[in-house]
Amino acid sequence: MMKIHRQNKNGIATYPQRRSDVKKWIFILVIFVALVVTNKNAKKFTIKTIVVSAMPVFKLAGFISNTKENIIFLFKNKQELRENLESLGEKNAEMENELILLDYIKMENEELKTMLSRPDKKSFILGSIISRPPKSPYDMIIIDAGLNVGVTQGMKAIAYSNVLIGYVVEVFSNSSKIKLLSFPLEETSLIIESTKISAIGLGLGGGNIEIKIPSSVVVKNGDKIITDGVFHYLLGLVDKVETDLTNPFQKIIFRMPINLNELQRVGIEKII
Amino acid sequence: MKKRILADVFIVSLFFLAPWQLTAIFAIVFMLLFENYWEGIVIALVADAFYSLPESKFFSGGFGFFTLLSLLIFYLVSFVKSKIKIL
Predict the structure, then answer these.
(1) Beta-carbon neighbour count of residue A147 at 10 Å?
(2) Less Cβ around it within 10 Å: N or C end of chain B?
(3) pLDDT of B20-57, one tens digit each?
């Protein structure tokens, strides 16, 4: 039987009628969302459908953002750029000298690991970042590498070849989601290099990670924090040390040593 | 209708280019300005699909949080409008 709506003189359904329709639709949608949230397969299907269909737009948006930054760069103050170039040149020379020593140590380290049957051979899959905070509400990034290039769940995401930033948590045909180590309540096993103390880092969100260790351990700002295990990655540098005389533990807060806004690509470490 | 299409284009651009807070604010504003702004809920559903993480708690990174929140806001806006609208 056809339902007849009460209409006003313009032939439009009256406001109470339209409101009851809205209520009906809200109810239907709430039921739909509840079903999708509770059913694993339905959730996977919905997410996959939306992500795959909207991904080209996301890639286009990433391209527009990059182009915009390039155009802004053209109009930057030339004097400021020259000063930056000079200071970076000096830093570069300093770092090159350090690198000579580091190369030797790295070679020695690799030789030792090979002798102990733990060869340090890593290979990476390169992925371009297409969404990052603050565009995303949580500490996660989306990259344009997915199943098509061999990315699988659980792979490590590495920046600048030695900084661990997170893990792949969801993979689609041509994109993946990476959960950053600073994701709220995310736990990471780590070592404070200067003291060789191992601890658990707890993500705080906003790129910050917190560690709680006994107050008796001396930790200074700028101390390196690395991953535990045989092959270490840099996690960050100590940013803040909070001590309280009444508390036997001190709180150490550190940030990832990278600027996510400047980071364009990440390497996904292949599991061999 | 023209204004609504412009608002849709604007909010979609915000979603893909701007910080999420801006998108959220404009979605609420458009829900207040336009009648039954379902597009706000669609944007929330897309945000959930893109930014939710598996094995995350519902309130911090779980799928469906933004969609349910937008439905709640949609209902509240519609309720408030019904109380102040003169027809």
Answers:
(1) 13
(2) N
(3) 999 999 999 999 898 889 999 999 999 999 998 887 78
Contact criterion met (CB < 8 Å) for A137 and B58: no
- For the stretch A65-106, pLDDT in tens is 778 777 877 777 777 888 888 889 888 888 887 787 787 788
B45 burial (CB, 10 Å; 0-12 / 13-18 / 19+) is buried
Distance from CA of A234 to the nearest CA of B (A): 24
Question: A135 vs B54: CB contact, 8 Å cut-off?
Answer: no
- List the one residue out of B51, B11, B21 whose CA is nearest residue A134: B21
Q: How far is A189 from chain B (nearest CA, A)?
A: 19
Contacts of A23 in chain B (CB under 8 A): 75
Structure tokens at A172: 């689609």
What domains does chain A contain, in order, with CATH numbers? 187-255 (2.40.10.350)
Q: Give pTM, 2 decimals.
A: 0.78
- Inter-chain residue contact A26 with B71, CB threshold 8 Å: yes
Torsion angle (degrees, nearest 10) of CA A230, A232, A237, A243: -20
Task: Spell out the domain ranges in chain B.
Answer: 2-84
Distance of CA A166 to the CA centre of its chain: 6
- Residues of chain B found within 8 Å of residue A50, distances taken between Cβ atoms: 45-46, 49-50
Q: Distance (Å, rounded) from C-alpha A163 to C-alpha A91?
A: 20
The packing angle between helices B65-84 and B39-51, to 10°, is 160
Q: What number of other Cβ atoms are within 10 A of residue A183's Cβ? A: 22
